[in-house]
Amino acid sequence: AMSLPRTLSTEPAKHDEKACSDFNTWRQKNPDHAMAVAAVHALTKVIERSKAQTIMELQKDLKDAVESLKEEVKSSISLKASCELFSRYVTRASLDITAFSNCRQRLITRGKEFAEASMESRSRISNFGVRFIQNGTRILIHGQSRVVNHLLMHAHKSGKKFSVVITEGRPDCSGYNTAKELAKRGILCKLILDAAVATAMDNIDLVLVGAEGVVENGGVINKVGTYQIAMVASLLRKPVYVAAESYKFTRIFPLCQKDVPQRVDNYHVELKKVGISPPSAVPFFNPACDYTPPKFITLLFTDLGILTPSAVSDELIKLYY
Fold it and tell me: Membrane-crossing residues (predicted)?
């Protein structure tokens, strides 16, 4: 696995309350944008207000903020990936600039450029992916992905007539929100039970999912259930497409499902929201995400272009080095 050069201090990180506040404020004001973009804005503000006098001190401030944000949103793979990529992206500027004042301004500029590029990534992905949707295409989606929704809305606006089958996405039933949003835009939708994916697959032309993270070998980490959907699709020879921003490319390499970082979710609370009360004495296995190996993925639609899973490692090298 690739390793990032040691550019940041190894001192213990200090909690950056202001970075977390900036992060949460930006998310509240921009609910339609990903938390990774909010993190980039917060980190750029860290550079702007830093009182550091050297690049090493500035890197330490940046590291403290990154660790604080990762603690604020525990186990978010996309947040961790975007923070690491941002840190690498902005610190490259220090390699060629000796005057610290010039370097600071360059870092601020780079941070803003990174945020702008991140915000534009959905439009780029939609432009790449829309060609795979034709009149009459029947699409299965799973989870609540802003970039997938953006792509589908873009295809609809371009005049294409297609239909979408949406899994419930328990325990949070994220599919309900997705169905509501797409139907409001005039897209023909149908909800199905998570357990009905194999039954429905005969009447599906392609699977389209988002990603919490795209890993080194081209596999993806996404909402639990993605793995089995991809396996069923592969068995029935249906293509599986993943729409993901390049800031979700992460330098991790899961070998099995146990290697997937998990959020700590309360399954019983989520089930009660949908009117189900399981026995409190019976434990539930409730992973938030699962890992889909690259052999089950046909193509990835990214802001860098349309990639095969095998091309991801090359793109990671370009992003980090």
Answer: none
- CA-to-CA distance for 19 and 213, rounded, in angstroms? 23
Burial class, 268, CB count within 10 angstroms (exposed 0-12 / middle 13-18 / buried 19+): middle
| Buried-exposed string 23-33: b where 16+ CB fall within 10 A, e elsewhere | bbebbeeeeeb
Q: Are 71 and 13 in contact (CB under 8 A)?
A: no
Q: Is residue 100 part of a domain?
A: yes
Task: Indicate whether 9 belongs to any domain.
Answer: no
Query: Tens digits of per-residue pLDDT, 167-176?
Result: 999 888 899 9
Closest CA to 42 of 114, 93, 102: 114
296 vs 228: CA distance, rounded Å: 10
Could you tell me the residue range of the domain that residue 191 belongs to? 133-320
In-domain check, residue 190: yes
Which of 124, 143, 173 corresponds to the end of one domain?
124
Structural contact between residues 78 and 36, judged by C-beta atoms closer than 8 angstroms: yes
Burial (CB count within 10 angstroms: exposed 0-12, middle 13-18, buried 19+), residue 105: middle
CA angle 223, 226, 230 (to 5 degrees): 165
Same domain, 105 and 143: no
Task: Check if the beta carbon of residue 226 is closer than 8 Å to that of residue 290.
Answer: yes
Cβ–Cβ under 8 Å, residues 6 and 63: no
Per-residue pLDDT band at 9 (split at 50, 70, 90) = very low
Strands, sheet with 163-167, edge to edge from the N-terminal-most edge strand: 188-192, 163-167, 138-142, 206-209, 240-243, 299-302, 305-307
pTM over 0.85: no
Q: Are residues 114 and 154 in the same domain?
A: no
Question: pLDDT digit string (tens) for 20-35?
Answer: 999 999 888 988 788 8
